[in-house]
Design brief:
Largest sheet: 7 strands, mixed
Bound molecules: zinc ion
CATH architecture of the largest domain: Alpha-Beta Complex
Order of helices and strands: HEEEHEEEHEEEEEHEHEHEHEHEHEHEHE
Radius of gyration: 20 Å
Number of strands: 19
Strand content: 25-35%
Number of helices: 11
Helix content: 10-25%
CATH topology of the largest domain: Quinone Oxidoreductase, Chain A, domain 1
Distance between the termini: 31 Å
Length: 357
Amino acid sequence: MIAAETEGTATKGFAVHEAGTNFQPFDFVRRKPRPNDIAVDIQYSGICHSDIHQAKNEWPDIMPATYPLVPGHEIVGRVAKVGDAVTKFKVGDIAGIGCIVDSCRECQPCQSGVEQYCIKGAAFTYNGTEMDRVTPTYGGYSDKYVVDENFAMKVNGEGDLAGVAPLLCAGITTYSPLNRFKVGPGQKVGVVGLGGLGHMGVKLAVAMGADVTVFSTSPSKEGDARKLGAHNFVLSKSAEAMEPLRNTFNFILDTVSAPHDLMQFLGLLGLNGVMVVVGVPPEPTMFHQGSLIMGNRSLVGSLIGGMPETQEMLDFCMKNNVRSDVEVITPDRIPEAYDRTIKSDVRYRFVIDMQNV
Ligand SMILES: [Zn+2]
Ligand SMILES: [Zn+2]
């Protein structure tokens, strides 16, 4: 009996054991499902740029890497086991797991359904610990995850599940600000940058009914921007193209994490316009306060989304047939996928097929 109580969930994963080294197969044991837990057989796990930063320990001050590190917080799979108290899922359902897997559940943000801002600090899906602050969390580059049902999302519908995985980070990161500022028909919306985040921003803003313009520094992205549904494409380094657009946008979603000039885009906002940043350039950014004061403009930040909004986003995407554009790979190709993601040589997300590991 005691052995049965302590036995866990044998899991096959892929880990980096030290900064600068490659992924290796890594077998570990997840907890046995507790009454409120589900055990998920992972089918697909997206590769988010933050996986790369953490695997390489490039954020030592904000997110120092703890090894062995199994990344992955864009997870979709089939529910294989449910605890006795689980009500939301049954065996065979499709579940999604995003960037956090627990939080204190008592503080004001947790009570408000924005668990990502938990005052005590949420439990991240990987490179973190459970709320006991001891047990390490390992992410979705693995074949199983055990999670409290309150931190798993229902994927209502089948179809292309590989394209669903990136919704759990890139999707909610862009949906949340678009939703918060009620982007919709009759609004002029700009999306700055067309990478993993930007391509989701375009698809979502188009599905919400807005008139969408993509701003990019690379002319080669124009065809793709239009294929994703964007109504306009503007080369942001062209002063001639940018100048006539001043004071014309309701909302701009800035997804760029490379150094860039914020004022160039703030100037495009009309009266009461809002620009939301979701990318984090390595160095602080300078801008002139006048570019906010003129026009009563707002510059706002946004971090993923809480559990209720993440579920809402998934439901919106399933209903409106919004998926991430993905390139599916086997786990042995993770290093190649990392190199290509760093070079922006992916349209638009790598997703690892974890079904046959
Ligand atoms: Zn992510
Ligand atoms: Zn909390």
